[in-house]
Amino acid sequence: MTIGKMFKxxxxxVKPYKWLVVGTLVMTFIGSLAAQVNAVVLDWTVDKINALxxxxxxxxxxxxxILTLISGILLGKEVLSAVITxxxxxxxxxxxxxxxxxxxxxxxEKMLTFRxxxxxxxxxxxxxxxxxxxxxxxxxxxxxxxxxxxxxxxxTSAILALILMYAANVYVGLVATCIVPIYFWITWRQAKxxxxxxxxxxNYREAKSHGIMNIIESITVIKSxxxxxxxxDKQLDLQNRLxxxxxxxxxxxxxxxxxxxxxxxxxxxxxIILTAYLVLSGFPGMSIGxxxxxxxxxxxxxxxxxxxxxxYDDMNDALIYAEGYFDILxxxxxxxxxGSYRPAEVRGEFELKNVDFTYPNGTKALYDxxxxxxxxxxxxxxGLSGAGKSTIVNLLDKFYTPDSGTITLxxxxxxxxxxxxxxxHIGLVLQKNHIFDGSIEENIRYGKPDATQEEVIEAAKKAFxxxxxxxxxxxxxxxxxxxxxxxxxxxxxxxxxxxxxxxIFLDEPTASLDAIATEQIKSSIDAIKxxxxxxxxxxxxxxxIDSEMTYALRSGRVEQSGNTEEVYRSGxxxxxxxxxxxxxLNIGKIADLLDDGEINRSVVVQDSFS
Length: 610
Ligand code: ADP
Known about the structure:
Elements: H1 3-14, H2 18-35, H3 37-52, H4 60-112, H5 116-120, H6 126-168, H7 170-217, H8 219-224, H9 228-280, H10 289-306, H11 308-329, E1 350-358, E2 364-373, E3 378-383, H12 389-396, E4 404-409, E5 412-413, H13 419-424, E6 426-429, H14 440-445, H15 453-462, H16 466-470, H17 485-499, E7 503-507, H18 515-529, E8 533-537, H19 541-544, E9 549-554, E10 557-562, H20 564-569, H21 572-585, H22 587-593, H23 596-609
Parallel strand pairs: 3-8, 3-9, 6-7, 7-8
Antiparallel strand pairs: 1-2, 1-4, 4-5, 9-10
Helix pairs in contact: 2-4, 2-6, 3-4, 3-10, 4-6, 6-7, 6-10, 6-11, 7-9, 7-10, 7-11, 9-10, 15-17, 17-18, 18-23
The site of adenosine-5'-diphosphate (ADP) has 13 residues, from α12.
């Protein structure tokens, strides 16, 4: 990204505030004129006082008049400057705040349109993304502010001062003009040298954010394994590299700053010598006051250049972070694809033909998958962890697209389906469902924002959540994040009940629940399963045993398929899993222990629901 490109990209965010821009520009012009007043007044005063010296005692009356006049002018100018500075700062800050709000919102809205692959890509972990966005918005909006309250006024003042210098004397103007490019050159070298370090700094900062987030998220595991020291050391290593980088950056900066101060002083000395020479050799229009006049004007010319490295620093920061920010904002290739197919009715018949799939990080998860998910039936996906079951669900929900092969729903390629419409008709319950920051009611309503109170209650009842919610002091207004894992799972199931979709994907829906909850949820899921297309992934035999079709996967390939009986009889991974589950459950002993009453009671639970 270049400075020009960055300003071009920022322009649309500043455009809505063009009146603020116009106001600031007017202020800038007045402010720049006011900045030259000191030099003019000093020039005039020195010459006037100088002329009074030969008059001896008799000059006091005249001197007081001069001093009163310049005091008035200088005080008046200070008042004007104070008002202008205030207005500039206030409007500049106002612009920064507004632009920062718009930029943050724009990137959030853009990111929401991205496909899931963007968020699981290696370089886009939450901490990194967050830093990229925060820093991008912060440094870009600061650039807008600095441009209007710093860069623009300083440079306008410098140009005005330079014009005045030329008007006073061409040679003096030329000396000032010669110093400026040297200054620019040094600053440019400084910026170039620092760029590599700054990119490194950005990476370290992102990694640091990511590391801190990781620690917070995994604090229970860290503590239970007593790994505080190891985690601390991991961060220490990063901190050390960040510190080294910072030190090197500062060292370089201070070195160049010294060099620039020296060049500025050389410029001032040259101006003094030249003006003194012109005065002494009786050059027309040159008087002793001009020495002060030129030095002050030169100081106005060099002021922004003195700040140039800081402006350059800020600009470089902005350039680095702008790239990250605008990459997201212009990441149209990441936008989720959608077709326009929106049929009146969704039957729910999926067909996968020769599907291969690789995750963005290069993990190949599926090989030549052929599958038919019958409408209105229950299909179980079985296999060991990592076999690719969840990946299939990810593909059917259009979270990812296959590398090759086709997936159709009701005979139409998934790519042609309107993505939002498709997802409106799919209910997804995962092992760990995300509960949003909000009340239980808000979390259930997420499945259908316009649901009535009765519908929320009905959904909670079906998910066996209602009684538990009513026992809480705040009922449905309780914060959902305060609920236990099992209760949160019921909230997620209630959310699906209220959505009432014709297709349901259940990915280990009861894995984190206790036996009673599992039984209750199985009952409620059994109820919703009727006449819908259901895909269930579960390690719980009871949930997969009554599926009408089973696909057994191993290492990303379908190894077996058919009804429960066929698949079991043909041996292989399915039989291994079922046998191992039965053994781990110690079914024989449990059967001996159970009395008829117990078995009957579980039947009653199911019947009472259906
Ligand atoms: P299962 O659901 O059968 O346990 P998955 O479908 O979750 O298995 O995973 C299949 C393979 O894909 C595994 O090797 C897993 O590590 C990998 N995988 C799953 N999710 C991702 C992801 N977001 N990025 C990269 N690889 C992934």
